[in-house]
Write a structure and sequence with these properties.
The chain has 163 residues and is mainly beta. The protein has one helix at 78-85, and strands at 5-12, 16-20, 35-38, 43-46, 53-57, 60-69, 87-91, 96-100, 107-113, 119-123, 131-135, 142-150, 153-161. It has two domains: 5-69, no CATH class; 87-161, Immunoglobulin-like, CATH 2.60.40. A hairpin with a 4-residue loop joins strand 3 and strand 4 (43-46).
Length: 163
């Protein structure tokens, strides 16, 4: 049924970029749409278009991040899908902000704010490649918000730095 949700467990061996796609189906009607829901990015991607869902993950087991679903929960425009494909996280092992940009969205600036709302990092000299790392070495242990301003909109994500 369209309301069925199938959990998809995922294990990552490190800070890498991954793809999930359908290569073959059995006992699925041809007109049945198949989606993957990423609860980490709060996005839903149509797998039945034979395109791969691209994402990044740090090392670990993710038993509640992905679900296979049979209807889209929210309709996204093409621009929204491009922004949703943009992913970034802080790598505590490398002291860098890692940015994965598979759709080539133009990133205008990256700002990091502490929990008091103070800007502690601002970078407007950005590389427009599909994978970038930006050194963030002078921030103490704590919770921060990364604000990424793109040509298509603004993304905000919480990161935790453990020094």
């Amino acid at each position: 049924t369209e309301d069925k949700e199938i959990p998809l467990n995922f294990k990552s061996s490190g800070d890498y970029f991954y793809e999930i796609k359908i290569t073959e189906t059995e006992n699925v009607p041809e007109d049945q749409d198949i989606y993957i829901r990423d609860t980490y990015t709060e996005s839903t991607f149509k797998l039945s278009d034979l395109e791969a869902y691209e994402f990044s993950a740090t090392a670990g087991e993710f038993n509640d991040r992905f679900q296979i679903v049979f209807r889209e929960s929210v309709t996204l425009s093409v621009v929204d899908q491009e922004i949703e494909a943009l992913n970034y996280y802080y790598s505590n092992t490398r002291d860098k902000l890692v940015v994965m940009n598979p759709k080539g969205v133009e990133i205008k600036s990256i700002q990091i704010f502490n929990i008091l709302g103070q800007s502690v990092y601002n970078n407007q000299n950005l590389h427009q490649q599909s994978y970038n790392e930006y050194p963030i070495t002078d921030l103490s242990t704590g919770t921060y918000v990364v604000n990424m301003n793109t040509e298509s909109g603004v993304l905000n994500k919480k990161i935790i730095i453990n020094n």
